[in-house]
Amino acid sequence: MSKILSLGLIGCGGISASHVNGLKELYTHGLKVVRVDAVCDIALENAERRAEEIALIQGFKPRVYSSLEDMFSKESLEAVDICLPHDQHHSIAIRCLEEDLHVLIEKPLAITMRAAKLIIDKATSKSRILAVAENYRRTPDNRTVKWIMDQHMIGEPRMIFWLGLSWNPKPWGWRENKFKAGGSWVFDGGVHIADIDRYHLGREAVEVYAKNRIFEPFKDGVESTVDDATLAIIEYEGDVYAQWSWSRIAPGYPLNLRVIYGSRGSIYMPGLTNFPSGYVRIQIDGYVEERSISFIRSEAIKAIKPEILEEMFPRGITDSFAIEIYDFYRSIVYGLKPEVDGIEAYRDMAIPLAFYESAKLGEPVKVKDVEGLKVEEYQAEINEYLGLR
Known about the structure:
The protein is built from 15 helices and 17 strands. Helix 4 runs parallel beside helix 5 and helix 5 runs antiparallel to helix 13 (342-361). The chain starts with a strand and ends with a helix. The strands form 3 sheets. A 9-stranded mixed beta sheet has the order 16-15-14-13-7-12-11-8-17. Strands 3-2-1-4-5-6 form a 6-stranded parallel beta sheet, sandwiched between helices. The chain has a two-stranded antiparallel ribbon with strand order 9-10. The protein is globular. Helix 5 links the parallel strand 5 and strand 6 (130-133). The chain is α/β, with parallel strands linked by helices. The chain has 2 domains: 5-135 and 316-341, 3-Layer(aba) Sandwich (Rossmann fold); 137-308, Dihydrodipicolinate Reductase, domain 2 (2-Layer Sandwich), CATH 3.30.360.10.
């Protein structure tokens, strides 16, 4: 019989709903390997709501807490799943690690590189598993694009373009505050895109150059201290370049697409996670050969070894949140490295935070210098506010 992992859910806001749905997917497919024994949120009504939802999945209601210390004193958990605003990640994760708990934490790992390093160092010293809930790479379409790249179907990679332009003028809660969010969606979601860039390319970022602005400092009367537009260029190893263009105040014509160009062709993705209308185009003398990503996925499924396919999609599950929870479980039970551990997430964070550093300094920034805490001009104010040294 499989070991059942005793888990506490910390933070019962919006993103936690996807984690609960991931748990449901695991149970639906016969993988009843995680048991949520406790939920905790300072807003007791949020914790109660999630507890009721979890009860319908696992057959009993987790105990509900509004105090983390109260939960620690009354529970004997093995692990936690942290779904909190960015500014709380480091303090809560470190406190959980001090209790010898394994930690799954929502992305980004922390609000700054310095805060993230504190979490990684604590996990290392306590010999605990630290996994980051990076779900984008785990979707069937992004797994397929990885296979396409590994097969050199479009030749050697040369350029990536991501356009994320939309009109979203309404305030977005705590995410409007630099000291709570760290940055805009180009940081919050940018760690996702940095992760799939690195995943698809199999290369590390070397240098970035970026410009950003707050065009509209008030959103419906609410002050926003994070950028609402960022333009950036990333140099990856091997002379591969990525260009990101993001804005939430681009009226009239929204754009959401990602394209990878290689020496022989390109991969078009109308989105970031699922793209049923995506395709691969190969440039041949006189014409272009086109195949859909969904068709290529069927080829990939046949070509990938069954045991590897099972790791990617356990029991055929395609819900990316369920897959990341199961990966966390397997890492703890079998002593494996999580697919996205603290180091992977640290490198993901460094790319969009390097945008902010570059924009602040007005010059290109080496990503290694951001990772090594040698460049923290933008982050310094946040670190000081949070008392991080």
